[in-house]
Write a structure and sequence with these properties.
298 residues; alpha/beta; Arginase, Chain A; eight-stranded parallel beta sheet
Length: 298
Amino acid sequence: MPSSIRIIGVPMDLGQSRRGVDMGPSALRYAGLSHRLRKLGHTVEDIGNIPVPVRDTLSREARDGMSFLPSVLEACDLIYEQGQKAIAEGCIPLFIGGDHSIAAGTVGGVTHNAPSGLLWIDAHGDFNTPESSPSGNIHGMPLAALMGLGTPELVNLGRPGPKLQPSDVILIGARDLDIAERALLKESRIGIYTMREIDERGIAAVIREALARLQHLPRLHVSLDMDCLDPMEAPGVGTPVTGGLTYREAHVLMEILADTGCVGSIDVVEINPILDERNRTAEIAAELLASLLGKSIL
């Protein structure tokens, strides 16, 4: 069914140390994202980019890790407001990043007035706290913050406390977890499907089981980190990990999610054009988003 989709760019590169993901929104637009969605019958409004400080204009002391937290919080507050507003106005907000730290704002905003299930599709857990993280990079912390763990400023972004319950969250595609992060994930009681389970059972069985676990919720938010794919498929990401989803596995995942008719909000993150090959990763991301929003083979 055609929907009203609001594209919101977030050129965030403050949550991690590898430069280039701030150009992700431009790469996706260049890949014809709006045109692809309009061809499916959707009404598409692109409202431009959330203002994010340019990394090189910040203090010389703010060069890595948690030192960028104030600027990340400022941008995520605006993201939160845009997510809340889009849902209230009957739109599907489609946030195009940027690094995965934006999800502290996207998920918080779209769940402000009503709950939503969260499918976090990622090679990584993003379930670190400042104490557990080996790097201190904020893009490895948003899911933990959404569950109420970590630095209070990030946990209380938009509204106080956790934004999700453990039964609301499924992590799919994990294959690179930090040692302390593993312990936090096990304690969290969220649903987790690693690449081993996908290899053994198949992506269709995994996603159908995941959806059954989220059926108590009226809507779904899909948080798609492009490093969920194998870097042979999608090389333009900042933290590539071998052994990820194939091109067709990723499309099957998106197609099954589309079949539910419950996808109410989306973010796609970690596209790094500097590391890409002729915008290949952004092209694949645009194709996956089209599948998620209704494109089918027949």
